[in-house]
Write a structure and sequence with these properties.
17 helices; Rossmann fold; 3 domains; single chain; alpha/beta; four-stranded mixed β-sheet; 38% helix
Amino acid sequence: MNLYTKLQQRAADNKPVRIGLIGAGKFGSMYLAQIPKTPGVHLVAIADLSPAAARTNLARVGWNPALTQVESAQAAIKTGATWITDDWNAVVTHPQIDIIVECTGNPVAAVEHCLQAFAHGKHVVNVTVEADAFCGPLLARKAAEAGVVYSLAFGDQPALICELVDWARTCGFPVVAAGRGHKWLPHFCESTPETVWANYGLTPEQAERGGLNPKMFNSFLDGSKPSIESTAVANATGLTVPSNGLLYPPASVEDIPYVTRPVSEGGVLERKGMVEVISSLEANGRKIPYDIRMGVWVTVEAETDYIKHCFEEYNAHTDPSGRYFTLYKRWHLIGLEVGVSVASVALRGEPTGVATCWNADVVATAKRDLKPGDLLDGEGGYTVWGKLLPADTSVKMGGLPLGLAHNVKVVRAVTKGQSLSWADVAMDTSTPAWKVRSEMENMFAPAMKKAA
């Protein structure tokens, strides 16, 4: 509870945490908006494919243009300014930068950025959770081997869920379920960038004003992002996942402890200790009052009558039995909160969520009938959405991870609703991302097959 004090001390000592940001899009811009208000940090460099777009976003969030008129990271360090470049490698290899905030949203590129950062002794806060979803357990291991910290990004829901799970376990509560909210109806899995705004609840004008990317936001809506984020949570916390994908039970905040119980006790869970996502819409499309759409939650269990009575005495939010209690945070603020990760990693050496096992995977699943020659366009696009599955199920079927389903050609017919396998596509096996995924499967899959 003293990160801010530690940051103030770094400022007083003139030893700021030096940061390199890769990707200055929506999430990155939200973080940029907070940096000038945060003591003890110095954004040394921004790497973006379009430096001009990065400058536009800096202006949008209120940065002084005079603070970006330097020609190198070294000049930025001397003057307290920020260098803007299209050369990400120059940023991650600079010896005086402490932490890389990977914010591109491109999972294949993000893996390369993370590996290069580890190789040069840099901690990484990985906003691109899509990369963590398909190879986070191995990225975490490689970071540890390099003696650096790899972390999920606070402000994004996975890190906030991990915080709630950690709170529960540290207090001695068994975690029955944990997850996030989402606006969900079953047909949303077919949504495309052309249909996203009407389904999402925004006008095209609102989307344009906010600089919102329809493909990225469609990945939220079509179930890909909830699956990706639930995967990151399961792999970080050891919680298990539903056997055939998220169920999205509809519930108000009041009803979360009702539905996040085992089926045998009137809930929806296959077993205790699972991730799930709560829908803010009833099956008929009716909006649920006081929903958890933008928030996170954890349900814990009172294992004794004494604890159950404590819940009752303090008017805790429980199910009718009084045994299951849900703690929740109704909002998350995305990039506005990522400074917590930067401070935790730099000042405590602690991640705000990191993979500890391989429990879950996100498998690319056809939005429509696919034929040989079709080109997959990744999460949020027109061809596939991401389905959450147990990792051992994915391994047995040879599931194609959603994070690698970008610019990949289909080589045999796949029917709508079918999850794709490696054999269904012509995969580029030369990328660092594919090599890391392959290495991870070789490391974990034999044990899974043996256990089966």
